[in-house]
Write a structure and sequence with these properties.
This protein is α/β, with parallel strands linked by helices. The chain has a single domain, classed as TIM Barrel, CATH 3.20.20. It is built from 12 helices and 10 strands. Helix 5 crosses helix 7, helix 10 crosses helix 11 and helix 11 crosses helix 12. It is globular.
Length: 332
């Protein structure tokens, strides 16, 4: 197996790689389709990467931001670590940690994540609906979504990892729950912000936040507001994502508008919850809002914010708001 000089250095310096993941956790995650990287990272082939290859249909991020779904790597440096226990999360939470002790070498994580993606895509060689040229493109991702599961900012070398992706000419989307404003400040100071920064705001007030997000301390909602106040100062593309769960947090547009006004984001995504994974143990199918309900919420929020609807994808039950009601794709 090919290893870069940086990877070889990491392998020789054992502690940089980190300890192996607990076998039981690894087995659960691999059954769910993950490829485990080192001691705390993971890769999973996105549904939309597959759809883009076989059907020519990309995800809503392709529609909204111009990325190529077939060339997007979906990964996380914190596959089993998060400081929230969100009811709508699809991940296994029973054994998850609220911190990350290990810290694998960033170049190791990036190289091994790319290798894992290639392995996951290898089954599409010879697929009747996938051309060789298209598969070759997919085998060389130019975009990474640092999300998937867990809270990525718990990985203390996150900025270095983003740098490693950028060195490979990849755009970087980072999704955070917004409870680590100090991490974002440090990344800003070091010049290591992602191409696009998402902050999930899935509760209009602290009472709903405590019930729906199940924070593991009393400070998370305050820290989220601190992050929102920080966002306007960050020189990168910013997104607020409202994950909407019918019967829990759908509505309260005035309260959401007050939070969004702190952040002044370039984009606001209003996205319906999906009844998938282990969220099915905590919520019901009825908690999935219809696209019409998401659209009504987006229209009311847009009116309060002075934003406009730039695009929508009914198949993903998501509506995009921008300050001028227009799309602003990432320049190639």
């Amino acid at each position: 197996m090919f290893r870069s000089p940086e990877m070889a250095k990491g392998l020789l310096a054992g502690p940089l790689i980190g300890s192996a993941m607990d076998p039981e956790r690894r087995e659960v995650l691999e059954r769910q389709g993950y490829r485990i990287v080192g001691g705390h990272s993971g890769v999973k082939l996105c549904h939309w990467t597959k759809a883009s290859l076989t059907k020519g249909v990309g995800c809503y991020k392709q529609t909204f931001y111009g990325i190529d779904s077939a060339r997007c790597l979906q990964m996380t440096p914190t596959v089993d670590a998060c400081n929230l226990g969100c009811m709508f999360c699809w991940r296994t939470q029973e054994w998850g940690s609220d911190s990350l002790v290990d810290s694998d070498d960033p170049s190791f994580i990036v190289e091994e994540s790319l290798r894992a993606q290639r392995e996951l895509l290898s089954g599409y060689g010879g697929h009747p609906k996938v051309s060789k040229e298209r598969l070759d493109e997919a085998l060389h991702p130019n975009q990474v979504a640092i999300s998937l599961t867990g809270e990525p900012t718990l990985y203390r070398r996150l900025g270095e990892m983003i740098d490693e992706f950028k060195r490979r000419n990849m755009t970087t989307f980072l999704v955070t729950n917004g409870t680590t404003p100090g991490v974002l400040r440090r990344m800003h100071a070091e010049g290591r912000l992602p191409t696009q920064l998402y902050v999930t705001v899935a509760a209009p007030n602290e009472a709903i936040y405590r019930e729906l997000m199940a924070p593991k301390s009393d400070n998370e909602f305050r820290k989220l507001q601190e992050t929102l106040e920080l966002l306007p100062t960050l020189p990168t593309r910013t997104v607020i994502r409202h994950t909407l769960v019918d019967g829990w947090n759908l509505g309260w547009e005035e309260d959401y508008a007050r939070l969004d006004a702190l952040a002044k984001p370039m984009f606001i995504e209003c996205k319906g919850y999906s009844f998938v994974g282990e969220s099915r143990l905590r919520l019901k199918a009825d908690n999935m809002p219809s696209h019409a309900a998401v659209r009504r919420f987006a229209e009311r929020l847009a009116g309060r914010m002075g934003y406009g609807i730039a695009a929508e994808r009914p198949d993903s039950r998501v509506v995009l708001l921008t300050t001028d009601g227009r799309l602003h794709p990432i320049s190639s």
